[in-house]
Please model this.
Amino acid sequence: MMKSVLSGLAMVAVTAGVSFAGHHEEASADAAMVIGEATTNAPTLEQVLAGDHRSDKNKARDAYRNPAATLNFLGLQPDMKVAEIWPGGGWYMEVIAPYVAAKGQYIAVGFDQDSESAYVKRATEGLKNRVTENPALYGMVTITELGDGKYDIAPAGSMDMVLTFRNVHNWMNGDGMESKVFAAMYKALKPGGVLGVVEHRAKPGAEIDPKAASGYVDQDLVIKLAEDAGFQLVDTSEINANAADTKDHLKGVWTLPPSLRNGDEDRAKYEAIGESDRMTLKFLKPAIGGMAFLN
Model:
C-alpha cells in the first residue's frame, strides 16, 4: 500500500492503494486522494450502461435520466479528464468513471471530508468502495472535496469537462456558495473545456426562491450563474424534460421518484409522473479571456 502526499495538502487515509501514474497528474486539491489501479479495460458507453456492476434499481432510472443521450449531448469522450461535482450515491459515477478509465481520468468531487453528517460519511465510503471492489472496471479514480472554504476541486486548467447533476439547489444556501462553485468549476476547466449542468427546473416566471427550498431552480438563474463565472452557453436540450411534472408538490422534487417522500400516500400518482422536469445545459469556458475569480 502506498500513500502519496500531495504538495502542501493532506491526503485522506484510505484502505485502498494510493498512487499517481500515467495520465493521472497530481491534483492540487483539498483532501485529494487517488484510489484503484490502472486498467486497460475500455468499454463503450452502451456496454457500461448494460454492465452487471449497475443494479436493476439504478438501471430503472435510465428511463428518466437518459444517461446515454445526456452524455452524448454534452460531448463526453473516453479520453477526457472529467470531474463530477458531488456524485452523491454514485449513480453517474458508475457510468462515467468506467467509460474514461483506460484513456482519460475521473475525479469525484465529493462532499466536505470534515462533515459530521452520516449521509456524507456513507456517500464518501460508498465512492471508495465502488472503486476498490472493482478496480479493473473503475481504474484509478481521484477523490477531492467541495465544501465551505474548500473550492480547489482539481488542478487549475486541467479538466476537459466538469459535470454536475441535480446539485445547484444544494449550493443555494444564502451564503453565495453557488457563485463560488461555478467559479471553482471554471477554474478547474481547460480553456475550451465543457461544463454540463442538469438540474430540477422551476416553472418559467415563478418567483425565485434564493434558497431553492423546493429543489426546483429557475433555468435563467442557472445560466446567469454560469455566465457570471465566465462561461458561455453553447446549447440546451430537452432530453431530461418532463411535461407531466406540475412542480407544485408539497415536499418539492422529493415528492417524486426516487425519493417519494410521501410514502404510500398518492404513490401511484407520483410514480406515474416520474422524476422531475430538468434542464440540461452545455457551457464552454472560452479559449481566451474569462471572468471567474475565487478569493
